[in-house]
Design a protein that fits this description.
It contains two helices and no strands. By secondary structure, the chain is mainly α. The chain starts with a helix and ends in a 12-residue tail after the last helix.
Length: about 70
């Protein structure tokens, strides 16, 4: 068995694993930022305004006849 080839293969495997972990960490950071942005956006949503936009024909008239 060639010790040098085995050592190179193990080192290459370790480098690949480290690269995959770094990419995964970056993606987790991106997703965390997107989740924070979505949460912030949802906190500023006016539900009544969205309902009015979705169904503009509702709530425009009031029947005050007894």
């Amino acid at each position: 068995m060639d010790i040098a080839a085995l050592s190179m293969a193990m080192n290459q495997s370790q480098v690949n694993n480290q690269a995959q972990i770094l990419v995964m960490k970056q993606m987790m950071n991106v997703q965390a930022n997107q989740a924070t942005a979505l949460t912030d956006m949802l906190q500023t949503v006016d539900v009544a305004k969205i309902q009015q936009i979705a169904q503009p024909h509702l709530g425009g008239n009031i029947d005050i006849e007894g």
